[in-house]
């Protein structure tokens, strides 16, 4: 391996007003082969964050006359951060709330550790799978922020945007019941561009309708391939807030259903709470007419906004999707578990299916099943897949799944 092929050294910023504690954490970092930089106060850390790039931060919540919460906002602006480890002697509810605040601020990978620090737990929290981000990944992320509407339009014309499909399974039987279609963009210039970059750009530039219609058509064509094997198969696709008030989308969806031969019941339209509530009267018009035609309507990211219950009471939803931010930690965070349990109960009160996003392990699956959650999706089941890969995965999963499900039930009994 040449020097150019070697993975970049992982850089850790250790923030703690106790030099002995800082030295302890830095020592663990060095033994793991990382480069650790120590800051003993808020201002030193803020200066380092503004001038340097770090893969991970360990952050004490108590920093003399300042606190670590202020630093979380600065860290959230650093797109290179892979992980934040919050360390504090505060009680567990404060730690849990801080981690949730970090997630809300955009820090995807945030965890907490209590003081006094358990060295084994610290090493586990500091261990990265696959090493640091590659230079190519960093360059792609940086370039993605510079993409223009014209370049997005060129990507569309060149068929660089395409759907991937994440399976949805029945949590009781283990059988695949459908999938969610997600838009992706692989650009020869910018690399893999995330939907968090190109979807807002598409909405601003007016390209969102073209992207949505393309994703809908390809999703329906995909569903058509599976309906002969499973007439109850349902494909879900997202609808932008801009299109939820466009009544012409109704005729276009109906026309595509007719052309592809897909029954309306096999299509689920997902809308977020903020989308549904942005223009209630016009959104109600579109959603009701879709439901009358037999199309399912799913409330996506339930619980992450400010009017979820109001939206549920007013809109004709048939499915409720519990956001992954609640599901991911529900087995270790009692507060998150209460939210998930309440969400399942609310869905059933409204005669809707409860869907859990973000299932990453069997234990979460089993707990959600016992809770009565109907459907699940997440990386523990499968990542989003291109069509051919989904076909192969679907055949293998439905052939193998009943055995472990039955085995688990025997052991449970």
From TrEMBL:
The modification 4-aspartylphosphate is found at residue 60. Transmembrane segments: none annotated. Residues 11-128 form the Response regulatory domain. It comes from the Bacteria. The keyword Phosphoprotein applies. Residues 145-398 form the EAL domain. PROSITE patterns: EAL, RESPONSE_REGULATORY. The keyword Phosphoprotein applies. Keywords: Phosphoprotein. Pfam families: EAL (PF00563), Response_reg (PF00072). SUPFAM superfamilies: CheY-like (SSF52172), EAL domain-like (SSF141868). This is EAL domain-containing protein. It comes from Rhodopseudomonas telluris. The lineage of its organism: Bacteria, Pseudomonadati, Pseudomonadota, Alphaproteobacteria, Hyphomicrobiales.
């Amino acid at each position: 391996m040449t020097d150019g092929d070697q993975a970049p050294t992982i850089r850790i910023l250790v923030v703690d007003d106790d030099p002995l504690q800082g030295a302890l954490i830095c020592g663990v970092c060095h033994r793991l082969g990382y480069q650790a930089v120590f800051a003993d106060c808020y201002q030193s850390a803020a200066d380092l964050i503004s001038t340097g790039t770090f893969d991970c931060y360990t952050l004490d919540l108590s920093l003399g006359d300042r606190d670590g919460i202020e630093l979380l906002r600065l860290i959230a602006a650093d797109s290179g951060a892979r992980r934040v480890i919050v360390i504090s002697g505060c009680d567990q509810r404060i730690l849990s709330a801080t981690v949730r605040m970090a997630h809300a601020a955009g820090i995807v990978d945030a965890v907490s550790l209590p003081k006094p620090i358990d060295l084994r737990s610290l090493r586990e929290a500091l261990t990265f799978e696959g090493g640091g981000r590659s230079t190519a990944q960093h360059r792609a992320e940086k370039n993605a922020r510079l993409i223009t509407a014209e370049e997005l339009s060129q990507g569309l014309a060149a068929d660089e945007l395409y759907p991937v499909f994440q399976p949805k399974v029945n949590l009781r039987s283990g059988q695949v019941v459908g999938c969610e279609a997600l838009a992706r963009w692989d650009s020869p210039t910018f690399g893999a561009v995330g939907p968090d970059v190109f979807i807002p750009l598409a909405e601003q530039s007016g390209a969102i309708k073209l992207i949505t219609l393309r994703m809908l058509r390809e999703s329906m064509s995909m569903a058509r391939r599976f309906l002969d094997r499973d007439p109850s198969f349902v494909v879900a696709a997202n609808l932008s807030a801009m299109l939820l008030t466009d009544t012409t989308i109704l005729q276009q969806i109906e026309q595509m259903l007719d052309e592809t031969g897909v029954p309306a019941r096999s299509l689920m339209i997902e809308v977020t709470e903020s989308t549904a509530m942005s223009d209630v009267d016009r959104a109600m018009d579109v959603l009701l007419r879709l439901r009358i035609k037999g199309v399912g309507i799913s409330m996506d990211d339930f619980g992450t906004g400010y009017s979820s219950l109001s939206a549920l009471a007013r809109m004709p939803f048939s499915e409720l999707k519990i956001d992954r931010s609640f599901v991911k930690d529900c087995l270790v965070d009692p507060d998150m578990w209460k939210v998930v349990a309440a969400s399942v109960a609310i869905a059933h009160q409204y005669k809707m299916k409860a869907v859990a996003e973000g299932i990453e392990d069997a234990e979460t699956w089993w707990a959600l099943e016992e809770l009565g959650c109907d459907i699940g999706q997440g990386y523990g089941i499968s990542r989003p897949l291109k069509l051919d890969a989904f076909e192969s995965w679907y055949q293998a999963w439905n052939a193998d799944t009943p055995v472990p499900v039955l085995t688990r039930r025997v052991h449970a009994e």
